[in-house]
Amino acid sequence: MNYCWTTFYVKDLQRSVSFYQEVLGLEIRSKFHTGDATEIVMLGKENATLVELVCNQKLVVSTSCLSMGFEVEGTLEETMEQLKQKGIPVIRGPISPVPSMKFLFIKDPDGVEIQLVQHVRQPE
């Protein structure tokens, strides 16, 4: 079995899509409407687990216990500078519980906690 996607119900689809594209670098893989005024956008990198954003104004969005982790492509310091330039506040961190990892937390437009992780190579 493969893990395919995680679904998040969002209040403002365009705002959420912009966040996941511009802040996390995810690409739109597909986009469609269902018959009941629901809009869905699937985002992610090729051959990776996707993020599914679902918007239906009739649904109540609750994010109190959600968290999602992404590995950064550069360093955490470079990521923090990019977040600062985009006006995205760091809500916790950076934290380094073990020498091989450090991370921080931000929130998406609906309050989902996003953990940005850097795996640090240890000298051999």
* Pattern of helices and strands: EHEEEEHEEE
How much of the sequence lies in strands comes to 35-45%
SS element count, helices: 2
Question: What fold name goes in the CATH topology slot?
Answer: 2,3-Dihydroxybiphenyl 1,2-Dioxygenase, domain 1
**Any idea what the radius of gyration is?**
16 Å
Q: Any guess at the CATH architecture?
A: Roll
Number of domains: 1
Which ranges are low-confidence, i.e. pLDDT below 50, for 5 or more consecutive residues? none
Derived structural class: alpha/beta
Strand order of the largest sheet: 1-4-3-2
Shape: globular
- Give me the count of strands: 8
CATH class: Alpha Beta
Q: Determine the fraction of residues in helical runs and give it as a percent range.
A: 10-25%
For the largest beta-sheet, the strand count, sense and barrel status come to: 4 strands, mixed
Output the CATH homologous superfamily. Answer: 2,3-Dihydroxybiphenyl 1,2-Dioxygenase, domain 1
A few lines on this structure:
The protein has 124 residues and is α/β, with parallel strands linked by helices. It has helices at 13-22, 76-85, and strands at residues 5-9, 27-33, 39-44, 50-55, 67-71, 92-98, 101-107, 113-119.
